[in-house]
Specification:
By secondary structure, the protein is mainly α. The protein has 23 helices and no strands. The chain has helices at about 1-55, 60-80, 80-90, 95-100, 105-135, 140-160, 165-170, 170-190, 195-220, 225-255, 270-275, 280-290, 305-325, 335-340, 345-365, 380-390, 395-400, 400-435, 435-465, 470, 475, 480-510, 530-535. Mean pLDDT is about 75; it is low at about 5-15, about 255-265, about 400-415, about 425-440, about 460-475 and about 520-543. Keywords: Ion channel, Ion transport, Membrane, Transmembrane, Transmembrane helix, Transport. It is a multi-pass membrane protein.
Length: about 550
């Protein structure tokens, strides 16, 4: 009986051994398939969220995507329809390339690139035809040398012109297209007989592509760079206002400011002023494209887009102070909450008045009207006066006491230690310089070890003395962080004047309507800005 049971157990073990490896492989593949399907589901969900977020942030992106698809379909007909393909041939591909390169998100950007491309193509084709006309009257060798010299000279001159600031800013793309078209036509003319037909077909194909792009950008749900710049300026003012208000409220209401240090880079305060500080290149690009746009509404008669750039520069300077104010929430040494509470009301009132002023400036730009005459109200001056009175009522916090005298004495003692050490070091060097080279070297070698030991002992003795300074002067040091915070608030009020001046200048140049609290739809009181003000605001190529 025992033998039978042993044989059955052995048989079962042998069976498991033969089928164990396939089972393991099968389970491994199942696990991999499950992991792959889970990753694909997560990827699909992440892709859908990204698509939804991009369209939700700005629905105009969806419209622009459909416009590009429609333009590409239209120019593809030059290839797909037989009669059109016979007329243009393989040059029809240039129309497709033009749509892909020229059609941009805003009408100003499309106009800038489209006109640059058209102008560059016309100039390059004309010059290439002239070079070919002169070269065909020469022998083969002379013709090759002449074409090579022309390519070298034109390429060098055009490339050097790209470094001119005005051309770099406005016509850089046109110069690139000029170089590309000129070299393609000139070099290929050496082997191709009918160069005029090449120029003709390529010019018409590019013209059709540019015409379709301009039609879509200007007439089919147009997106204006000027409006984007206008709305961007309004948004920057509102973000700064919200950042200042949130920063002051958090400083006085949060009992443990240090808990928020790790998430400060993701908070609304940081996002508010970061968008302002990062707006320089965006503002300059939008202003450039806006200068190319034609008048498209009653608000757009030669609008001073460069003045918007100046307003953006002043707002960035204003934003640097907000960054410093936010930094007061993240310092290692913080003023106790009991001390901060003494100055809470005037600081919050002051921040509230600054916020109101910034929001009024944002509303004035949004509605294209002048600022309210009471933008700097008496409440702002009263809040400043209350803060000054509150600080003067606590002289011991800001002027210190006898403990600050102890701090000064300890700092003087530390300075005396350092001065004495330097004097001894200089004295040792002067003695060594009198001795002979051999004795000076032996003495220097002997004293080097002793000097390093003395220096290390002095450093160890000096370190605990200096480390006691913040402790012995606690009454004075605990008010220093708030003093920095209050001074930055006052600096914000001072810089607010510069922001108001630039916004008022913008309203004067752009002929904003007069302020009326009862009616926001007052007609514009000025039909066109003074010539002497706006003549330098826009490039000469502006419409």
């Amino acid at each position: 009986m025992a033998t039978k049971v042993h044989v059955e157990m052995e048989t079962e073990m042998n069976g498991n051994g033969r089928n164990g490896v396939p089972e393991m492989v099968k389970n491994s593949w199942k696990k991999r398939l499950l992991d792959f399907s889970g990753k694909m589901k997560r990827f699909t969900g992440c892709l859908w969220r990204t698509i939804w977020k991009a369209g939700r942030e700005d629905p105009r992106r969806i419209i622009h995507a459909f416009k590009v698809g429609l333009c590409l379909t239209l120019v593809s007909l030059l290839y797909l329809i037989e009669p059109l393909f016979k007329s243009f041939g393989t040059s029809a591909i240039w129309a497709v390339m033009t749509v892909v390169v020229v059609l941009e998100f805003t009408a100003g950007a499309t106009l800038c690139k489209g006109l640059n491309r058209g102008l560059g193509t016309v100039l390059a084709g004309s010059l290439a035809f002239l070079i070919n006309y002169i070269a065909t009257r020469s022998e083969s060798v002379v013709r090759a040398v002449f074409i090579g010299a022309a390519v070298f000279l034109i390429g060098t001159a055009a490339t050097y012109m790209r470094f001119f600031p005005y051309i770099k800013k406005n016509y850089d793309y046109g110069v690139v297209i000029f170089l590309l078209t000129f070299n393609l036509i000139t070099v290929s003319s050496y082997r191709v007989e009918n160069v005029l037909k090449i120029v003709h077909d390529r010019f018409y194909a590019i013209s059709i592509g540019c015409a379709i792009c301009l039609f879509m950008s200007l007439l089919v749900f147009p997106i204006w760079s000027g409006e984007d710049l206008h709305n961007s300026t309004v948004g920057k003012l509102e973000r700064l206002a919200k950042s200042i208000e949130a920063c002051v409220n958090e400083y006085f209401n949060d009992p443990e400011i240090k808990e928020n240090q790790d998430k400060s880079s993701e908070g609304p305060i940081y996002k508010g002023y970061k968008a302002v500080l990062d707006s320089k290149s965006i503002d300059e690009t939008l202003a450039l494209y806006a200068s190319w746009e034609p008048r498209h509404s009653r608000h757009c008669y030669r609008f001073p887009w460069q003045q918007y750039v100046k307003v953006g520069a002043v707002l960035r300077q204003f934003g640097y102070t907000v960054v410093a104010l936010h930094g007061c929430l993240q310092t290692e040494i913080q003023t106790p909450r009991s001390v901060r509470a003494r100055f809470k009301d005037p600081c919050i009132r002051l921040a509230g008045e600054v916020t109101k002023a910034l929001m009024e400036l944002a509303n004035s730009i949004r509605r294209r009207r002048h600022c309210s005459p009471e933008i700097l109200s008496d409440h702002l001056h009263e809040a400043l006066q209350d803060l000054d009175t509150a600080i003067k009522s606590q002289p011991r916090l800001f002027l210190g006491s006898k403990k600050s005298q102890t701090t000064s004495n300890m700092l003087a003692l530390a300075a005396a230690h350092v001065a004495r050490y330097k004097q001894e070091k200089d004295h040792g060097v002067s003695l060594a310089s009198v001795k002979t080279e051999s004795s000076a070297f032996l003495e220097w070698k002997r004293k080097r070890v002793g000097r390093e030991e003395a220096k290390e002992n002095e450093r160890k003795a000096l370190r605990p003395q200096l480390s006691k300074i913040p402790i012995t002067s606690l009454e004075f040091s605990e008010a220093l962080p708030f003093a920095a915070f209050a001074s930055l608030l006052v600096e914000i009020v001072a810089r607010l004047d510069h922001v108001i001046e630039e916004v008022e200048e913008l309203g004067r140049i752009a002929c904003y309507k007069e302020f009326n609290p009862d009616d926001d739809d007052i007609s514009v009181t000025c039909k066109r800005p003074p010539v002497d003000v706006t003549k330098n605001q826009l490039p000469s190529h502006a419409f």
